[in-house]
Design goal:
Elements lengths: L8 E7 L9 E2 L4 H6 L11 E2 L5 E2 L4 H8 L3 E8 L7 H10 L10 H9 L9 E4 L15 E3 L14 H15 L5 H24 L14 H14 L6 E6 L8 H25 L6 E6 L19 E7 L5 E3 L19 E2 H12 L5 H4 L12
Parallel strand pairs: 1-8, 1-9, 5-11, 5-12, 6-7, 6-8
Antiparallel strand pairs: 2-4, 3-4, 5-10, 9-10
Length: 377
């Protein structure tokens, strides 16, 4: 079945590729920043200042607007012990909240399991994009992964549900391995009806959606519009996931990073306006993160993989401000040429899980971590 209760939602936006924290939140009053970045430094006149020390990238106007309204928390120096510069390993660490071992379940998958302990709503978690990030993977937890909301479904062109179930069973027999055909058939028998129900209901979300907001024609804007459509349909979806990138700016950073943030910031601005129009903004929390930051010193036109980064948390109920310590740019304080992490990412996870979703965070983040006050108790 599908829930129609209005409850708090969490939207997670992954900036894949390693977003450059220093050119996202620029320390424009620190000469060491300009000493290290002669090729890609952003001048003090260009930044969108938060205060006398730090300012947003000039292409983050909509994000800056959230800051001005007190609806944005900036998490400085976010990362984890013994940083790893591999995209794949670092993302896996963030996905599973396990820096020291190979995790078996995603933190959001575990949250979905705890939010819907009886498995009553196959739409508790929805991913917008191809594939399924490991953050959403947990044994026995179904998560819909939607490429195009308006055409999403399992064999959607077959109108009769019984015929579709038979077709799915046939596909399982055709493509399942010889030794596993019984397992495939059993899974289809147990889950086929629920999967079809979830797919069919998701496809109705655009038809039930009305908004005056015109989103840009970019991948992240389309994903966030789809998220707004699902949220406004009242399907009981609690966790929604989207990605944008690549933020892997080894070269041509000033141009490519500007375009990336222009797209993300504009999409967040439209999404925010849409949720306010739908009267959902107060019940929505958005986390924006990336697997690591970039090197402090540029390589000429870009910068390479680093460690300490920056995360953003925004929403109508957020108590805005700066949290954590901005990493030092002094050579002696760097970690092999990288910004040292000053804030464990699991503190942000624990805060969201406990204070926003009402879950016990310790089993999900594998320990106890200090929480922030960007959400009140």
């Amino acid at each position: 079945m599908v829930s129609t209760n209005k409850e708090r939602s969490l939207v997670v936006i992954e900036l894949n590729g390693g977003n450059d924290a220093l050119n996202t939140l620029v320390p424009f009053n620190n000469g060491l920043y300009y000493d290290n970045r002669p090729g890609i430094g952003i001048s003090p006149e260009e930044v969108l200042p938060l205060d006398g020390e730090y300012g947003f990238n000039p292409n983050m106007a909509a994000v800056k607007g959230l800051w001005d309204r007190g609806e944005l928390a900036v998490i400085h120096g976010i990362g984890y012990p013994q940083p790893n510069r591999s995209h794949f390993r670092s993302r896996d660490i963030w996905y599973t909240a396990e820096p020291e071992s190979i995790g078996t379940q995603g933190w959001l998958g575990a949250a979905i399991r705890d939010l819907d302990g009886r498995g009553e709503n196959v739409l508790t978690g929805v991913n917008f994009g191809r594939g399924l990030p490991r953050a959403l993977v947990c044994k026995g937890v179904p998560v819909a992964s939607v490429g195009n909301l308006e055409t999403y479904g399992l064999l959607p062109d077959i109108a009769d549900e019984n015929v579709r179930l038979q077709a799915l069973d046939a596909l399982g027999r055709m493509y399942g391995p010889a030794g596993g055909r019984d397992i495939v058939a059993q899974a289809l028998s147990e889950n086929g009806s629920q999967a079809l129900l979830g797919a069919d209901i998701l496809r109705t979300a655009p038809e039930r959606y009305e908004s005056s907001i015109e989103y840009a024609d970019t991948p992240i804007a389309r994903s966030l519009k789809s998220a707004a459509q699902v949220m406004s349909a009242g399907l009981g979806t609690r966790i929604l996931y989207a990605q944008h990138g690549s933020f892997d700016t080894h070269s041509n950073e000033l141009q490519s990073h500007a375009k990336l943030w222009q797209d993300v910031s504009a999409a967040i601005g439209d999404f925010t306006a849409d949720l306010k129009e739908q009267q959902l903004w107060q019940d929505t929390l958005v986390l924006v993160w990336s697997e690591f930051g970039r090197r402090v010193h540029d390589n000429g036109t870009g910068c390479d993989h680093g460690s300490g980064g920056v995360a953003l948390v925004l929403g109508g109920a957020v108590q805005g401000g700066q949290f954590g310590q901005y990493p030092s740019l002094r050579e002696a304080d760097l970690s092999e040429g990288d910004l040292a992490y000053t804030t464990d990412f699991r503190s942000t996870y624990a805060t969201i899980l406990d204070r926003w979703l009402g879950l016990d965070p310790d089993p999900i983040v594998h320990g106890q971590f200090e929480q922030f006050d960007f959400i009140g108790r």
